[in-house]
């Protein structure tokens, strides 16, 4: 009992369950992806899996197309999400919390159910399923992840900067471009990361909203893994991880700029 009490009394030991969880469910799967990506079916080291990706124009084109869809989705979420976050942050009425709840409610519903509801909506409106439906469904599913980081940043913004700019003679447009937008960029960068990364790797939304007529990179990975092509599927997954790492570096640059100040 004394040893147990001493073990529990040390605060650093409380991290042990998290470390074990991370090793089993994060580090180990990543290591398996790396091992499978750089080996063949016989277990020999090889780069043939990556060469197979670059030798197949269809896979490369799917990868580029997925990045394009992700960029369009991210831009759409910014264009629609920033004004919504701005309105919510400025609202001081009793309806503000209700509006915030309306944005939160869709996130409580499974993404597949929301996508199936989108399919039913397009069928009801007699609209064709395809690329337009795919972009609409992507923006609909991921726009809350753009709104809330921006909203939180705008909500916590020091209003004295705005008052100082107004005292120095800046009009409302100048205040927005010179003060509000730069100070809200950390929220925008967080929203971009939360929208862009899952959009590139998703596959269920594309399959449902295009009737399997449009293939994204996530679908390519899923098909190879389901067909027991573990090595090639792992190589595709590793390529996706490289893209996610590059996006994460972009997000870390945004945080570093936040430390230096948000004004131009």
H-E string: HHHHHHHHHHHHH
Taken from the alpha-carbon principal axes, the silhouette is globular
- Major β-sheet, in short? none
SS content category:
mainly alpha
Mean pLDDT across all amino acids: 85
What value does the Rg take, in angstroms? 23 Å
- Unreliable stretches: 256-264
Feature tags:
264 residues, single chain, globular, mainly alpha, disordered C terminus
Architecture overview:
This protein is mostly helical. Helices cover 78% and strands 0% of the residues. It has 13 helices and no strands. Helix 4 runs antiparallel to helix 10 and helix 9 packs antiparallel against helix 10. The longest helix is centred in the N-terminal third of the chain and has 34 residues, at 57-90. It starts with a helix and ends in a 5-residue tail after the last helix.
